[in-house]
Amino acid sequence: MTDDFNWTEFESDSMSFDNVGDKIAGRIKKIEVKQGQSGTYPQLALQVDQDGTEKLVNASPKDLKQQLAALAPQVGWWVELELVGLKHTGQPQPMKLFTVNARAPKNPEPEEELI
């Protein structure tokens, strides 16, 4: 038996909000629109550490999607997302409730001049 078990094959590049308290924070590197069973939703690629590790967040839950739309974060913004509760609505799956914080970069990089 060894103490150096290699866990890399079990790592994931995506984040799933399954349990109350699940959270993620990072800088938005990319935003794409994806198609799901209930329509379109944003998918955020977040840089979650100094090493450049990225995690994908599918913002398909209604509350998360609406809160992000209200804040309208852009590439380069810092976001913090946390699943804070479940609301039973009579549907098979409860509605997921989120806390969302977002802020623009302190020193935005100058845009390239278009010629």
What is the radius of gyration computed over CA atoms, rounded to a whole number of angstroms? Answer: 17 Å
Indicate the proportion of strand residues.
35-45%
Number of beta strands: 6
Largest sheet: 6 strands, mixed
Overall mean pLDDT score?
Answer: 89
Strand order of the largest sheet: 1-4-3-2-5-6
Q: From the coordinates shown, what is the CATH architecture? A: Beta Barrel
Q: Total helix count?
A: 1
Please write the CATH class name.
Mainly Beta
Give the class from helix and strand content and strand pairing: mainly beta
CATH topology category name: OB fold (Dihydrolipoamide Acetyltransferase, E2P)
What is the percent of helical residues? under 10%
- Rounded to the nearest angstrom, the distance between the terminal CA atoms is 62 Å
Describe this structure in words.
The protein has one domain (12-103): Beta Barrel (OB fold (Dihydrolipoamide Acetyltransferase, E2P)), CATH 2.40.50. Helix content is 9%, strand content 43%. The chain has one helix at residues 62-71; strands at residues 14-15, 23-36, 39-47, 54-58, 78-87, 95-103. The chain has a 6-stranded mixed β-sheet with strand order 1-4-3-2-5-6. β3 and β4 form a beta hairpin. The termini are far apart.
